[in-house]
Specification:
By secondary structure, the chain is of the alpha/beta class. The chain has helices at residues 2-11, 87-105, 121-129, 131-134, 155-160, 165-168, 185-192, 201-209, 217-222, 259-270, 292-304, 318-330, 345-354, 370-376, 387-392, 416-432, 434-446, 451-466, and strands at 17-21, 31-45, 48-59, 62-70, 111-115, 138-143, 151-152, 183-184, 195-198, 227-229, 279-283, 308-312, 337-340, 357-360, 380-384, 409-411. It folds into 2 domains: 2-233 and 455-466, Glycogen Phosphorylase B (Rossmann fold), CATH 3.40.50.2000; 256-449, Glycogen Phosphorylase B (Rossmann fold), CATH 3.40.50.
Length: 468
Protein backbone atom coordinates (compact mmCIF):
# COMPACT_ATOMS: atom_id res chain seq x y z
CA UNK A 1 0.00 0.00 0.00
CA UNK A 2 2.82 2.40 0.91
CA UNK A 3 4.61 1.64 -2.35
CA UNK A 4 1.52 1.98 -4.55
CA UNK A 5 0.27 5.18 -2.94
CA UNK A 6 3.73 6.77 -2.94
CA UNK A 7 4.12 6.04 -6.63
CA UNK A 8 0.73 7.56 -7.44
CA UNK A 9 1.48 10.69 -5.38
CA UNK A 10 4.79 11.15 -7.19
CA UNK A 11 3.12 10.74 -10.59
CA UNK A 12 0.86 13.62 -9.55
CA UNK A 13 3.87 15.85 -8.92
CA UNK A 14 4.38 15.43 -5.17
CA UNK A 15 7.70 14.72 -3.45
CA UNK A 16 7.43 11.56 -1.34
CA UNK A 17 10.02 10.10 1.01
CA UNK A 18 9.56 6.87 2.98
CA UNK A 19 11.13 6.19 6.38
CA UNK A 20 11.60 2.57 7.48
CA UNK A 21 13.59 0.67 10.09
CA UNK A 22 16.77 -0.89 8.71
CA UNK A 23 15.84 -4.50 9.32
CA UNK A 24 18.53 -7.16 9.19
CA UNK A 25 16.56 -9.36 6.80
CA UNK A 26 15.35 -6.86 4.24
CA UNK A 27 15.72 -7.70 0.57
CA UNK A 28 18.85 -5.62 0.11
CA UNK A 29 19.07 -6.74 -3.52
CA UNK A 30 15.93 -4.66 -4.11
CA UNK A 31 17.53 -1.43 -2.82
CA UNK A 32 19.49 0.59 -5.37
CA UNK A 33 22.34 2.84 -4.29
CA UNK A 34 22.10 2.11 -0.57
CA UNK A 35 24.49 4.32 1.39
CA UNK A 36 24.84 6.38 4.54
CA UNK A 37 23.13 9.76 4.29
CA UNK A 38 23.11 10.91 7.95
CA UNK A 39 25.95 9.65 10.09
CA UNK A 40 25.16 10.82 13.61
CA UNK A 41 21.52 10.80 14.59
CA UNK A 42 21.25 10.94 18.37
CA UNK A 43 17.76 9.99 19.59
CA UNK A 44 16.64 10.88 23.14
CA UNK A 45 15.70 7.67 24.97
CA UNK A 46 15.01 7.35 28.67
CA UNK A 47 17.54 9.65 30.35
CA UNK A 48 20.15 9.42 27.59
CA UNK A 49 20.42 9.03 23.82
CA UNK A 50 20.85 6.23 21.29
CA UNK A 51 23.16 6.73 18.34
CA UNK A 52 21.68 5.92 14.91
CA UNK A 53 22.88 5.89 11.33
CA UNK A 54 20.43 6.80 8.57
CA UNK A 55 20.82 5.12 5.18
CA UNK A 56 19.26 6.12 1.86
CA UNK A 57 18.40 4.07 -1.21
CA UNK A 58 15.85 3.67 -4.00
CA UNK A 59 13.34 0.80 -3.85
CA UNK A 60 11.87 0.41 -7.33
CA UNK A 61 12.14 4.17 -7.80
CA UNK A 62 10.83 5.19 -4.36
CA UNK A 63 13.09 7.30 -2.14
CA UNK A 64 13.60 5.45 1.14
CA UNK A 65 15.45 6.28 4.35
CA UNK A 66 16.40 3.42 6.69
CA UNK A 67 17.10 4.11 10.37
CA UNK A 68 19.72 1.87 11.98
CA UNK A 69 19.99 2.19 15.79
CA UNK A 70 23.25 1.17 17.47
CA UNK A 71 21.95 -0.21 20.73
CA UNK A 72 22.31 -3.32 22.83
CA UNK A 73 18.51 -3.68 22.45
CA UNK A 74 19.05 -4.80 18.83
CA UNK A 75 15.70 -3.29 17.91
CA UNK A 76 15.88 -4.40 14.26
CA UNK A 77 18.95 -6.64 14.19
CA UNK A 78 16.94 -9.82 14.56
CA UNK A 79 15.28 -12.49 12.48
CA UNK A 80 11.72 -11.13 12.63
CA UNK A 81 10.06 -7.95 11.38
CA UNK A 82 7.48 -8.04 14.16
CA UNK A 83 5.91 -10.50 16.54
CA UNK A 84 8.40 -10.15 19.40
CA UNK A 85 7.43 -9.35 22.99
CA UNK A 86 9.20 -5.98 22.89
CA UNK A 87 7.47 -4.78 19.71
CA UNK A 88 5.89 -1.74 21.44
CA UNK A 89 9.32 -0.58 22.61
CA UNK A 90 10.96 -1.24 19.24
CA UNK A 91 8.41 0.72 17.26
CA UNK A 92 8.11 3.49 19.84
CA UNK A 93 11.82 4.00 19.34
CA UNK A 94 11.42 3.99 15.57
CA UNK A 95 8.64 6.60 15.80
CA UNK A 96 10.83 8.82 18.00
CA UNK A 97 13.85 8.32 15.74
CA UNK A 98 11.87 9.19 12.59
CA UNK A 99 10.77 12.53 14.07
CA UNK A 100 14.25 13.25 15.40
CA UNK A 101 15.61 12.60 11.91
CA UNK A 102 13.15 15.07 10.38
CA UNK A 103 14.08 17.63 13.03
CA UNK A 104 17.86 17.28 12.79
CA UNK A 105 18.02 16.98 8.99
CA UNK A 106 15.85 20.04 8.40
CA UNK A 107 13.12 18.12 6.58
CA UNK A 108 9.71 19.77 6.90
CA UNK A 109 7.10 17.72 5.00
CA UNK A 110 3.61 19.17 4.64
CA UNK A 111 2.07 15.86 5.71
CA UNK A 112 3.42 12.87 7.62
CA UNK A 113 1.49 9.70 6.75
CA UNK A 114 1.74 6.91 9.36
CA UNK A 115 0.54 3.33 9.17
CA UNK A 116 -0.92 1.13 11.91
CA UNK A 117 -0.08 1.00 15.60
CA UNK A 118 3.65 0.65 14.94
CA UNK A 119 3.88 4.34 14.00
CA UNK A 120 0.77 5.62 15.80
CA UNK A 121 2.99 7.25 18.43
CA UNK A 122 4.30 9.68 15.79
CA UNK A 123 1.38 12.16 16.02
CA UNK A 124 1.53 11.96 19.83
CA UNK A 125 5.24 12.78 19.92
CA UNK A 126 4.90 15.38 17.18
CA UNK A 127 2.31 17.46 19.00
CA UNK A 128 3.67 16.89 22.50
CA UNK A 129 7.42 17.21 21.89
CA UNK A 130 8.25 18.35 18.36
CA UNK A 131 5.58 20.94 17.60
CA UNK A 132 7.96 23.86 17.99
CA UNK A 133 10.92 22.19 16.32
CA UNK A 134 8.96 20.84 13.36
CA UNK A 135 6.33 23.54 13.12
CA UNK A 136 2.81 22.89 11.87
CA UNK A 137 3.29 19.45 10.36
CA UNK A 138 0.04 17.59 9.77
CA UNK A 139 -0.47 13.87 10.29
CA UNK A 140 -2.64 11.28 8.54
CA UNK A 141 -2.86 7.84 10.16
CA UNK A 142 -4.04 4.79 8.23
CA UNK A 143 -5.30 1.74 10.15
CA UNK A 144 -4.97 -1.45 8.15
CA UNK A 145 -6.13 -3.84 10.87
CA UNK A 146 -7.83 -2.87 14.12
CA UNK A 147 -7.00 -6.28 15.60
CA UNK A 148 -3.47 -5.09 16.39
CA UNK A 149 -3.34 -1.96 18.56
CA UNK A 150 -0.04 -1.86 20.43
CA UNK A 151 -1.43 -2.29 23.95
CA UNK A 152 1.42 -1.93 26.44
CA UNK A 153 2.46 -0.44 29.77
CA UNK A 154 3.55 2.99 30.91
CA UNK A 155 7.21 2.06 30.33
CA UNK A 156 6.75 3.38 26.79
CA UNK A 157 5.96 6.82 28.24
CA UNK A 158 9.11 6.67 30.34
CA UNK A 159 11.30 5.63 27.39
CA UNK A 160 9.98 8.34 25.08
CA UNK A 161 9.95 10.99 27.82
CA UNK A 162 6.21 11.57 27.61
CA UNK A 163 5.43 12.90 31.07
CA UNK A 164 3.78 13.49 33.42
CA UNK A 165 2.36 9.99 33.04
CA UNK A 166 -1.04 11.03 34.37
CA UNK A 167 -1.49 13.34 31.38
CA UNK A 168 -1.27 10.43 28.93
CA UNK A 169 -2.82 7.66 31.02
CA UNK A 170 -6.20 9.38 30.93
CA UNK A 171 -9.14 8.13 28.79
CA UNK A 172 -8.99 11.22 26.56
CA UNK A 173 -5.48 10.36 25.36
CA UNK A 174 -3.69 6.98 25.46
CA UNK A 175 -5.40 4.95 28.21
CA UNK A 176 -6.79 1.70 26.84
CA UNK A 177 -10.59 1.62 27.08
CA UNK A 178 -10.85 -1.90 28.51
CA UNK A 179 -7.50 -2.70 30.18
CA UNK A 180 -6.89 -0.74 33.36
CA UNK A 181 -3.38 0.67 33.61
CA UNK A 182 -2.51 -0.05 29.97
CA UNK A 183 -1.87 2.41 27.17
CA UNK A 184 -3.04 1.87 23.62
CA UNK A 185 -0.71 3.24 20.94
CA UNK A 186 -3.28 3.01 18.16
CA UNK A 187 -5.78 4.94 20.24
CA UNK A 188 -3.18 7.63 20.81
CA UNK A 189 -2.63 7.88 17.07
CA UNK A 190 -6.36 8.30 16.42
CA UNK A 191 -6.69 10.94 19.16
CA UNK A 192 -3.69 12.99 18.05
CA UNK A 193 -3.72 12.61 14.25
CA UNK A 194 -5.37 15.24 12.09
CA UNK A 195 -7.21 12.55 10.14
CA UNK A 196 -7.47 8.76 10.40
CA UNK A 197 -8.33 6.52 7.49
CA UNK A 198 -8.95 2.84 7.14
CA UNK A 199 -8.67 0.94 3.90
CA UNK A 200 -12.26 0.89 2.63
CA UNK A 201 -15.40 2.98 3.21
CA UNK A 202 -17.43 -0.06 4.31
CA UNK A 203 -14.81 -1.06 6.88
CA UNK A 204 -14.79 2.48 8.29
CA UNK A 205 -18.53 2.16 8.87
CA UNK A 206 -18.13 -1.35 10.34
CA UNK A 207 -15.41 -0.13 12.69
CA UNK A 208 -17.66 2.60 14.07
CA UNK A 209 -20.87 0.61 14.50
CA UNK A 210 -19.77 -2.99 15.15
CA UNK A 211 -17.14 -4.95 17.03
CA UNK A 212 -14.79 -4.89 14.04
CA UNK A 213 -12.85 -2.04 15.67
CA UNK A 214 -11.82 -4.50 18.40
CA UNK A 215 -12.88 -2.21 21.26
CA UNK A 216 -12.02 1.07 19.56
CA UNK A 217 -15.62 2.02 18.80
CA UNK A 218 -15.93 4.66 21.54
CA UNK A 219 -12.75 6.43 20.42
CA UNK A 220 -13.86 6.34 16.77
CA UNK A 221 -17.27 7.71 17.74
CA UNK A 222 -15.68 10.66 19.54
CA UNK A 223 -13.35 11.35 16.61
CA UNK A 224 -15.72 10.40 13.78
CA UNK A 225 -15.39 13.88 12.29
CA UNK A 226 -11.82 13.07 11.29
CA UNK A 227 -12.24 9.40 10.35
CA UNK A 228 -13.09 7.83 7.00
CA UNK A 229 -12.37 4.98 4.61
CA UNK A 230 -10.35 5.07 1.39
CA UNK A 231 -10.10 1.93 -0.69
CA UNK A 232 -6.65 0.53 -1.35
CA UNK A 233 -5.61 0.34 -4.96
CA UNK A 234 -3.86 -2.32 -7.03
CA UNK A 235 -0.55 -1.71 -8.78
CA UNK A 236 -1.44 -2.63 -12.34
CA UNK A 237 2.24 -2.56 -13.33
CA UNK A 238 2.61 -5.71 -11.22
CA UNK A 239 -0.87 -7.24 -11.52
CA UNK A 240 -1.96 -6.96 -15.15
CA UNK A 241 -2.48 -9.90 -17.52
CA UNK A 242 -1.56 -7.69 -20.48
CA UNK A 243 2.06 -7.33 -19.35
CA UNK A 244 2.52 -9.95 -16.62
CA UNK A 245 5.80 -11.83 -17.28
CA UNK A 246 4.89 -14.57 -14.77
CA UNK A 247 2.01 -16.08 -16.77
CA UNK A 248 2.34 -18.26 -19.84
CA UNK A 249 0.30 -16.07 -22.21
CA UNK A 250 -0.69 -12.44 -21.89
CA UNK A 251 -4.28 -11.39 -22.54
CA UNK A 252 -6.50 -8.35 -22.15
CA UNK A 253 -10.06 -7.09 -21.99
CA UNK A 254 -10.14 -6.83 -25.78
CA UNK A 255 -8.46 -10.22 -26.31
CA UNK A 256 -9.27 -12.41 -23.28
CA UNK A 257 -8.80 -15.83 -24.88
CA UNK A 258 -5.21 -16.09 -23.67
CA UNK A 259 -6.68 -16.84 -20.25
CA UNK A 260 -7.36 -20.41 -21.38
CA UNK A 261 -3.68 -21.09 -22.07
CA UNK A 262 -3.02 -20.11 -18.47
CA UNK A 263 -5.81 -22.41 -17.30
CA UNK A 264 -4.12 -25.30 -19.08
CA UNK A 265 -0.74 -24.32 -17.60
CA UNK A 266 -2.27 -24.19 -14.11
CA UNK A 267 -3.70 -27.68 -14.57
CA UNK A 268 -0.33 -28.94 -15.77
CA UNK A 269 1.46 -27.33 -12.83
CA UNK A 270 -0.93 -28.82 -10.26
CA UNK A 271 -1.47 -32.18 -12.08
CA UNK A 272 -5.19 -31.59 -12.55
CA UNK A 273 -6.99 -33.46 -15.28
CA UNK A 274 -8.01 -31.69 -18.46
CA UNK A 275 -11.80 -31.56 -18.43
CA UNK A 276 -14.71 -29.23 -19.13
CA UNK A 277 -14.86 -27.86 -15.58
CA UNK A 278 -14.41 -24.47 -13.93
CA UNK A 279 -11.46 -24.01 -11.57
CA UNK A 280 -12.35 -22.47 -8.21
CA UNK A 281 -9.40 -20.92 -6.33
CA UNK A 282 -8.48 -19.58 -2.93
CA UNK A 283 -5.33 -17.45 -2.60
CA UNK A 284 -4.13 -16.04 0.70
CA UNK A 285 -3.53 -16.65 4.38
CA UNK A 286 -5.33 -19.45 6.16
CA UNK A 287 -6.55 -17.98 9.43
CA UNK A 288 -9.74 -17.28 11.30
CA UNK A 289 -10.10 -13.85 9.70
CA UNK A 290 -10.26 -15.45 6.26
CA UNK A 291 -13.01 -17.90 7.24
CA UNK A 292 -11.07 -21.17 7.16
CA UNK A 293 -14.17 -23.24 7.92
CA UNK A 294 -15.85 -21.77 4.82
CA UNK A 295 -12.74 -22.25 2.67
CA UNK A 296 -12.81 -25.92 3.60
CA UNK A 297 -16.56 -26.10 2.94
CA UNK A 298 -16.17 -24.33 -0.43
CA UNK A 299 -13.53 -26.83 -1.48
CA UNK A 300 -15.69 -29.91 -0.93
CA UNK A 301 -18.81 -28.22 -2.28
CA UNK A 302 -17.00 -27.20 -5.47
CA UNK A 303 -15.75 -30.75 -6.03
CA UNK A 304 -19.26 -32.09 -5.37
CA UNK A 305 -20.67 -29.71 -8.00
CA UNK A 306 -18.28 -30.94 -10.69
CA UNK A 307 -15.71 -28.15 -10.43
CA UNK A 308 -11.99 -28.25 -9.71
CA UNK A 309 -10.43 -26.54 -6.69
CA UNK A 310 -6.95 -25.11 -6.10
CA UNK A 311 -5.59 -23.46 -2.97
CA UNK A 312 -2.44 -21.40 -2.59
CA UNK A 313 -1.59 -20.22 0.91
CA UNK A 314 -0.36 -21.09 4.36
CA UNK A 315 -1.31 -20.48 7.97
CA UNK A 316 0.66 -18.79 10.76
CA UNK A 317 -1.37 -21.02 13.10
CA UNK A 318 0.25 -24.48 13.38
CA UNK A 319 -3.10 -26.11 14.16
CA UNK A 320 -4.75 -24.72 11.01
CA UNK A 321 -1.67 -25.51 8.92
CA UNK A 322 -1.77 -29.07 10.22
CA UNK A 323 -5.45 -29.44 9.37
CA UNK A 324 -4.83 -28.39 5.78
CA UNK A 325 -1.84 -30.72 5.48
CA UNK A 326 -4.21 -33.49 6.55
CA UNK A 327 -6.68 -32.39 3.86
CA UNK A 328 -3.89 -32.29 1.30
CA UNK A 329 -2.94 -35.92 2.02
CA UNK A 330 -6.61 -36.93 2.02
CA UNK A 331 -7.11 -35.39 -1.44
CA UNK A 332 -3.70 -36.26 -2.82
CA UNK A 333 -5.03 -38.59 -5.51
CA UNK A 334 -8.00 -36.45 -6.51
CA UNK A 335 -7.42 -35.28 -10.11
CA UNK A 336 -9.65 -32.24 -9.55
CA UNK A 337 -8.00 -30.74 -6.45
CA UNK A 338 -4.60 -29.39 -5.41
CA UNK A 339 -3.52 -27.64 -2.19
CA UNK A 340 -0.24 -25.73 -2.29
CA UNK A 341 0.42 -24.98 1.38
CA UNK A 342 2.93 -22.20 1.10
CA UNK A 343 2.68 -18.75 -0.37
CA UNK A 344 4.52 -18.30 -3.64
CA UNK A 345 4.09 -14.89 -5.24
CA UNK A 346 5.13 -16.03 -8.70
CA UNK A 347 2.73 -18.95 -8.60
CA UNK A 348 -0.06 -16.65 -7.40
CA UNK A 349 0.04 -14.87 -10.77
CA UNK A 350 -0.65 -18.15 -12.58
CA UNK A 351 -3.46 -19.07 -10.17
CA UNK A 352 -5.21 -15.74 -10.75
CA UNK A 353 -4.75 -16.06 -14.52
CA UNK A 354 -5.77 -19.71 -14.78
CA UNK A 355 -8.77 -19.86 -12.45
CA UNK A 356 -12.40 -19.12 -13.31
CA UNK A 357 -13.76 -18.23 -9.86
CA UNK A 358 -12.07 -16.94 -6.70
CA UNK A 359 -13.69 -17.57 -3.32
CA UNK A 360 -13.16 -15.13 -0.40
CA UNK A 361 -15.38 -16.01 2.59
CA UNK A 362 -13.72 -13.61 5.05
CA UNK A 363 -15.09 -13.03 8.54
CA UNK A 364 -13.79 -9.47 8.21
CA UNK A 365 -11.76 -7.87 5.43
CA UNK A 366 -10.64 -4.25 5.83
CA UNK A 367 -9.93 -3.98 2.09
CA UNK A 368 -8.86 -7.17 0.37
CA UNK A 369 -6.67 -7.18 -2.72
CA UNK A 370 -7.24 -10.73 -3.95
CA UNK A 371 -10.71 -9.92 -5.30
CA UNK A 372 -9.36 -6.83 -7.11
CA UNK A 373 -6.49 -8.75 -8.66
CA UNK A 374 -8.82 -11.61 -9.63
CA UNK A 375 -11.17 -9.28 -11.50
CA UNK A 376 -8.28 -7.77 -13.47
CA UNK A 377 -7.35 -11.31 -14.55
CA UNK A 378 -10.92 -12.19 -15.55
CA UNK A 379 -11.51 -14.42 -12.54
CA UNK A 380 -14.97 -13.95 -11.05
CA UNK A 381 -14.98 -13.34 -7.26
CA UNK A 382 -17.44 -14.99 -4.87
CA UNK A 383 -17.14 -13.07 -1.61
CA UNK A 384 -18.74 -12.43 1.74
CA UNK A 385 -20.25 -8.92 2.04
CA UNK A 386 -17.78 -7.36 4.49
CA UNK A 387 -15.35 -4.44 4.36
CA UNK A 388 -13.68 -3.78 1.04
CA UNK A 389 -15.27 -6.88 -0.46
CA UNK A 390 -18.70 -5.26 -0.17
CA UNK A 391 -17.30 -2.04 -1.66
CA UNK A 392 -15.87 -3.70 -4.77
CA UNK A 393 -17.88 -6.84 -5.64
CA UNK A 394 -21.46 -6.41 -6.86
CA UNK A 395 -23.69 -9.45 -7.13
CA UNK A 396 -24.69 -10.48 -10.63
CA UNK A 397 -28.24 -11.37 -9.65
CA UNK A 398 -29.14 -9.15 -6.71
CA UNK A 399 -27.12 -5.94 -6.88
CA UNK A 400 -28.81 -2.61 -7.50
CA UNK A 401 -25.83 -1.59 -9.67
CA UNK A 402 -26.21 -1.36 -13.48
CA UNK A 403 -25.52 -4.62 -15.27
CA UNK A 404 -22.14 -3.48 -16.60
CA UNK A 405 -20.90 -2.89 -13.03
CA UNK A 406 -21.95 -6.28 -11.67
CA UNK A 407 -18.83 -8.36 -11.40
CA UNK A 408 -19.27 -11.35 -9.09
CA UNK A 409 -21.29 -13.14 -6.42
CA UNK A 410 -21.92 -12.04 -2.84
CA UNK A 411 -23.18 -13.84 0.26
CA UNK A 412 -23.81 -12.52 3.77
CA UNK A 413 -23.92 -15.21 6.44
CA UNK A 414 -21.03 -17.24 7.90
CA UNK A 415 -22.37 -20.77 7.46
CA UNK A 416 -21.87 -23.36 4.75
CA UNK A 417 -25.21 -22.76 3.06
CA UNK A 418 -24.27 -19.11 2.50
CA UNK A 419 -21.09 -19.85 0.58
CA UNK A 420 -22.96 -22.60 -1.26
CA UNK A 421 -25.55 -20.09 -2.45
CA UNK A 422 -22.88 -18.00 -4.18
CA UNK A 423 -20.89 -20.91 -5.59
CA UNK A 424 -24.05 -22.68 -6.82
CA UNK A 425 -24.95 -19.65 -8.92
CA UNK A 426 -21.37 -19.10 -10.15
CA UNK A 427 -20.76 -22.72 -11.12
CA UNK A 428 -24.25 -22.99 -12.63
CA UNK A 429 -23.65 -19.96 -14.82
CA UNK A 430 -20.27 -21.32 -15.97
CA UNK A 431 -21.78 -24.66 -17.03
CA UNK A 432 -25.18 -23.48 -18.25
CA UNK A 433 -24.63 -20.03 -19.75
CA UNK A 434 -20.96 -19.66 -20.77
CA UNK A 435 -21.52 -16.49 -22.77
CA UNK A 436 -23.11 -14.77 -19.77
CA UNK A 437 -20.24 -15.97 -17.58
CA UNK A 438 -17.82 -14.44 -20.08
CA UNK A 439 -19.68 -11.11 -19.87
CA UNK A 440 -19.33 -11.23 -16.08
CA UNK A 441 -15.58 -11.83 -16.51
CA UNK A 442 -15.27 -8.85 -18.79
CA UNK A 443 -17.20 -6.61 -16.39
CA UNK A 444 -14.57 -7.37 -13.78
CA UNK A 445 -11.68 -6.77 -16.16
CA UNK A 446 -13.22 -3.45 -17.18
CA UNK A 447 -13.29 -2.09 -13.60
CA UNK A 448 -10.50 0.29 -12.58
CA UNK A 449 -9.18 -0.33 -9.07
CA UNK A 450 -5.79 1.24 -9.68
CA UNK A 451 -4.27 3.79 -7.30
CA UNK A 452 -5.51 6.66 -9.49
CA UNK A 453 -8.84 7.27 -7.72
CA UNK A 454 -7.56 6.37 -4.26
CA UNK A 455 -4.52 8.60 -4.69
CA UNK A 456 -6.79 11.57 -5.36
CA UNK A 457 -8.82 10.77 -2.24
CA UNK A 458 -5.65 10.84 -0.14
CA UNK A 459 -4.60 14.13 -1.72
CA UNK A 460 -7.99 15.52 -0.76
CA UNK A 461 -7.39 14.41 2.84
CA UNK A 462 -3.93 15.99 2.84
CA UNK A 463 -5.31 19.28 1.54
CA UNK A 464 -8.11 19.18 4.10
CA UNK A 465 -5.81 18.75 7.09
CA UNK A 466 -3.26 21.25 5.81
CA UNK A 467 -5.85 24.00 5.98
CA UNK A 468 -7.52 23.08 9.24
Amino acid sequence: MVFGLSRELEIRGNSVEIILPKYRHMRYDQIYGLGVTFQDLWVPWYGGTIHCTVWFGFVHGRKCFFIEPHSHDNFFERNSYYGDNDDPMRFAFFSKAALEFLFQSGKRPDVIHCHDWQTALVPVLLFEQYQYGLGERRVCLTVHNFRHQGVCGEEILRATNLHPFSRFMCPERLADDSRHGAINLLKGGIVYSNFTTTVSPRHAWEARVSNQSEGMGHTLHIHQGKFGGILNGVDYDLWNPEVDPLIVQNYSLNDPDGKYANKKALRDRFLLREAYKPIIAYVGRLDDQKGVHLIRHAMFYSLDQGAQFVLLGSSPNPKIQGEFWHLKHHLNNNPDCHLELEFNNELAHLVYAGSDILVMPSMFEPCGLAQLIAMKYGTVPAVRAVGGLADTVFDRDHSDQPWELRNGYVFHQTDGSAVESALHRAIGLWFGFPEQFRELMLNGMRADYSWSASGQHYLNVYEHIRHR
